[in-house]
Amino acid sequence: MITLFYALVLGIGATIVMDVFAVVLKKVWQIPSLDYALLGRWIGHITRGTFYHESILKAIPFWKERQIGWLAHYSIGIAFAYLLLVIWGIDWLSAPTFWPAMLIGLGTTFAPWFIMQPAFGFGVAASKTPNPSLARVRSLQAHFMYGLGLYVTGWVMAFLLH
């Protein structure tokens, strides 16, 4: 049960770091990030039996899709933090190390590239978007920040726990 609690704190902290980075990109350089309403729309349509879309942008909007998307975004962040603690053990929080956090963080790029983007109609690794290379770099940047967030949040937790 304690692992789940630590994963909750770690995942929320890491996801906040990822989101703060996205806000900075948008405010300073006008670089948009994923609209989590699209994630919520996708999840909503999954409950009705549709996993793949020609274009999620053209799919019928779903009730409370933005809230569903944000809840899913943070739930996914918590789930991957839990994975880190399962693989490296809860003792990782005693003295967090960089590479496990980065492996999990960058590993999370698998989800958008090979699950979400194809299901949204954007192709594998954004191959059907106007600028696939840029989309891939942005995805890697965001997930690097999530990994950095795992590391930094881990250190904050280590400080508070000891």
Automatic annotation (TrEMBL):
<dbReference type="Pfam" id="PF11158">
    <property type="entry name" value="DUF2938"/>
</dbReference>
<keyword id="KW-0812">Transmembrane</keyword>
<feature type="transmembrane region" description="Helical">
    <location>
        <begin position="102"/>
        <end position="124"/>
    </location>
</feature>
<feature type="transmembrane region" description="Helical">
    <location>
        <begin position="144"/>
        <end position="161"/>
    </location>
</feature>
<feature type="transmembrane region" description="Helical">
    <location>
        <begin position="68"/>
        <end position="90"/>
    </location>
</feature>
<keyword id="KW-1133">Transmembrane helix</keyword>
<keyword id="KW-0472">Membrane</keyword>
<protein>
    <submittedName>
        <fullName>DUF2938 domain-containing protein</fullName>
    </submittedName>
</protein>
<dbReference type="InterPro" id="IPR021329">
    <property type="entry name" value="DUF2938"/>
</dbReference>
<feature type="transmembrane region" description="Helical">
    <location>
        <begin position="6"/>
        <end position="25"/>
    </location>
</feature>
